[in-house]
């Protein structure tokens, strides 16, 4: 028996999905070279006269629960995708099955890179960043392997940014 860890709100099986007064339709799906699955979801509040919202949904199915990816490429591709979205379009929502391991790892990487790019030197203290995250949600970044992956991804992304600027 397989445990369902997350509802299929993004319609892996196709067709519109209704959740009360909300209807979600997948407009397109694209798989990247790093095995990310990108979807454009049209979210419509049925009782509203407002136009539907278009949501970019990024799924990383190759990131194992309680583990880390084999390399940092896909996580850094997610960074690039999310950094290209104007903040005025709304917040970024990150989730995994429990919302602490993979979610905490990605959020620590994203937050640290974002703060470094605006010159926040306190961002270099990853231990403090994760401690602050854990004060808001217990267990963020679950394993030592995930902790070390944060450092690997941050270093790889900073090296790429430096080489791109030269």
Automatic annotation (TrEMBL):
PROSITE patterns: TYR_PHOSPHATASE_1, TYR_PHOSPHATASE_2, TYR_PHOSPHATASE_PTP. Gene3D superfamilies: Protein tyrosine phosphatase superfamily. One of its GO terms (molecular function) is hydrolase activity. Residues 73-148 form the Tyrosine specific protein phosphatases domain. Residues 1-157 form the Tyrosine-protein phosphatase domain. PANTHER family: RECEPTOR-TYPE TYROSINE-PROTEIN PHOSPHATASE (PTHR19134), TYROSINE-PROTEIN PHOSPHATASE 1 (PTHR19134:SF449). This is Uncharacterized protein. It comes from Solanum stoloniferum.
């Amino acid at each position: 028996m397989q445990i369902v860890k997350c509802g299929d709100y993004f319609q892996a099986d196709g067709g519109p999905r209704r959740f009360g007064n909300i209807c979600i339709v997948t407009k397109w799906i694209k798989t990247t070279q790093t095995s990310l699955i990108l979807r454009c979801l049209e979210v419509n509040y049925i009782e509203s006269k407002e136009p539907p919202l278009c949501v970019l949904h990024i799924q990383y199915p190759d990131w194992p629960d309680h583990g880390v990816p084999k390399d940092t490429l896909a996580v850094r591709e997610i960074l690039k995708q999310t950094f290209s979205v104007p903040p005025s379009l709304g917040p970024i929502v990150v989730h995994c099955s429990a919302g602490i391991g993979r979610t905490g790892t990605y959020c620590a990487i994203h937050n640290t890179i974002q703060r470094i790019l605006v010159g926040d030197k306190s961002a270099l203290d990853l231990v403090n960043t994760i401690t602050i995250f854990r004060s808001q949600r217990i267990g963020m970044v679950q394993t030592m392997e995930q902790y070390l992956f944060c450092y690997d991804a941050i270093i790889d992304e900073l090296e790429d940014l430096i080489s791109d600027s030269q």
